[in-house]
Amino acid sequence: MNIYLVLIAALLGVSCSKGEDPLPATGIQAGSLYYSAADELMRFDFKTKQETLVFSGGSSYTISAAQEKFAWYKNDFAEQTTRVQVHDLEAPSGYESIIISATLESTPEFAPGEELLGALAESLDEPDLRKDLVLFNYHGAIIGRVPHVKDFSFSPNGKDLLISAEALNPGNEVEGYALALIKNYRSDDQQSITIREFPDYSQLPADISISPDASHVAYTHLDHLYTLELIEEAAPRQITASKFMEVDACWSPDGKYLGFIANVSGTTDCGEIRIVLSQPAEPVPVPDEAWENAPADPLQPVDNNGKVIHSCGSERIYWVP
Q1: What is the CATH number of domain 3-15+21-320?
Q2: A single Pfam family, by name (predicted)?
Q3: What is the reported pTM?
């Protein structure tokens, strides 16, 4: 679909099988989760069942792919700028500030392997209705801008960029809505692949997350989790079903599970952290919250007191080895 080359041209103006193992009776045993809880960055260790405060004072934190840094941001609406603070994950008191000339609407994501960040920003032409994707370096220079992007994700190797966006023709007119993979997005031999088209902007995937082996994407669509193979015209697989909403999917390091936030309380940015298989034979019913913060299913992570853990204000959650 050539219209996606129009999208990325703006950016480069500057150079399954149904078979699954049964659920473990005692939940996940290895790895950690990073997530936001109001103004706090939290870490949960599956083995020790310990929930630890990493940092407080920011909001909606993001973590670098190498788990070396984390970031948060604050807008200055009077100056139409944003200050991004990048901290060392092991020594959070140390940080550097990046000032960019844009009003951000999401916490910047780290591009793997490069000193480059991407974030959703207030749209230049439709600030009340749409968002643009801006890419900028650690000096605050914006090196690319893609209009009308609902969400995005860098591939694990940092070479490709997945966008959920309106497709615009050279006259800046909307031609469609799709999830598109821009392979080698920072090179001259980029290739645009339309993974799947959608009927309108509201149905475009949100909270998109690429699997560790870069073969699939998980996302929220019409309130529930789906996955797609990253090939042209891929067929979606519905992962969850519920009476509420599932958001902020993340992949386990081995790709077998998806962690996510279940908005069982009815709020849009807070909820219990839940886990499901990434390739279930049928959509997994997500149960309502249990009594007194007890786990609602066998895979749900709990602390040393047997209580479930919550995320509030997260834009992403991260599952690391």
Answers
A1: 2.120.10.30
A2: PD40
A3: 0.90
